[in-house]
Every structure is written in structure tokens, then in C-alpha cells.
Write a structure and sequence with these properties.
about 50% strand, about 120 residues, eight-stranded antiparallel β-barrel
Length: about 120
């Protein structure tokens, strides 16, 4: 019985540590027209000292990639071969994505995305 009171808080804390950081932003075309809202998530992978980064654009295109803790930029790829380069400025380098910041991304076909987290 005592073990339940010890194990449950540890389990809940470990699940909270794995919660993704959500970044919301706006997408514009290469001509500067507003294309809608977008979302990027960064899920921590402590065993690899990295984050899995996923981006969802308004046209339902999904990009995926991995960024190491010490890196500030990442190239994400969609299933249909489009790439997106993202550069991040973190508010607190020690807290990484969890400390907040801003990001700027550009797809290989010219769409631009700015996010805040």
C-alpha cells in the first residue's frame, strides 16, 4: 500500500517531464500573404540529449526532425520531400525549449513561419 503513494508521484512527475513544448505561430507565403496558424511541438528525448520536433502547417503538411540540446537550428522534412529549416532563440539555454523563446522557419517552397513559446 505504501508503495502506491511512492510510485504514483514518481510516475506522474516522469510523465510531466516528457510533455511536449508547444509553439504557436503564423505562416505566410513567399509573397507575404497570411496562410493561417501553425503549431510546432518539441518532445524531449533525454536518453539522446535531443528533441523530436514536429511542425503542422495550415494545409495539413506535417514536418518532422530531431534537434540536439546544444543546436539552435534544425531541418525538418515532410513525407512528400519538402524541407523546412528552423532557427530558434531560447530564453534560457539551461532550460532549453521549456524556458521559452522564439523561432523562425522557412520551407523549401518559400513559406515562412514564426513561432513563440
Amino acid at each position: 500500500m505504501t508503495y502506491r503513494f511512492i510510485i504514483l508521484p514518481i510516475l506522474l512527475l516522469s510523465l510531466a517531464a516528457c510533455a511536449p513544448v508547444i509553439m504557436n505561430g503564423e505562416v505566410t507565403s513567399d509573397q507575404g500573404f497570411d496562410l493561417g496558424k501553425a503549431e510546432i511541438s518539441a518532445s524531449k528525448r533525454p536518453e539522446f540529449k535531443a528533441y523530436i520536433v514536429k511542425a503542422y502547417l495550415p494545409d495539413e503538411t506535417e514536418f518532422k526532425g530531431e534537434i540536439k540540446y546544444y543546436e539552435k537550428s534544425v531541418v525538418l522534412y515532410s513525407n512528400d520531400g519538402v524541407s523546412m529549416k528552423c532557427e530558434f532563440t531560447l530564453n534560457d539555454q539551461e532550460k532549453k525549449f521549456e524556458g521559452g523563446g522564439i523561432g523562425s522557419c522557412t520551407t523549401s517552397d518559400g513559406q515562412k513561419l514564426k513561432v513563440k513559446f
